[in-house]
Specification:
By secondary structure, the protein is α/β, with parallel strands linked by helices. It contains 5 helices and 7 strands, in the order αβββαββαβαβα. α2 packs parallel to α3. The longest helix is centred in the last third of the chain and has 24 residues. The protein is globular, with a radius of gyration of 15 Å.
Length: 146
């Protein structure tokens, strides 16, 4: 199913009855701010169903701000790793930013942090998205020349 940006936002708003997010649409990416104090295993399906539709959109790259999340369980963190990989497999970026220090420590202790594309600030996350976009364009250009 392909959505235009307005339909996509309506779809996500209608679907996300429990998870509160703020969506800021930019030219090359979307900034999704999760407005929840925790991200638990029972929210992973909703998180996945909220983010995956962006892969059918012309603007696929996501910066996910998680500054309000004070607790994230292992299943939710693993879901983020899986989502990030699905975005990369589709030629898109998903960068997490503004992790709470306690959440970051817990993710590091569990070994999950090293699998996530994390930036300390929104600005740095945007830089990562832009660099990855340039890298994909260069790789596509090299493939055309071979």
């Amino acid at each position: 199913m392909i959505f235009d940006p307005a339909d996509l936002l309506t779809h996500i708003s209608n679907y996300s009855l429990c998870m509160h997010v703020k969506i800021d649409t930019r030219e090359k990416f979307h900034v999704i701010t999760v407005l929840e104090p925790q991200l638990a295993a029972n929210m992973t399906a909703e998180l996945e169903n909220s983010l995956i539709p962006f892969l059918q959109n012309g603007v696929k790259n996501l910066v996910v701000i998680v500054k309000d999340i004070k607790f994230m369980d292992k299943a939710a963190a693993e879901c983020l790793v899986d989502l990030q990989q699905r975005f990369y497999d589709c030629g898109a970026s998903l960068v997490i930013c503004q992790l709470d220090p306690k959440v970051e420590t817990a993710l590091d202790d569990s070994g999950i942090l090293e699998w996530l594309n994390v930036a300390p600030t929104e600005s740095e996350a945007i830089d990562i998205v832009q660099l990855e976009e340039i890298e994909r364009e260069l790789q596509d250009g090299e493939e055309l020349n071979t």
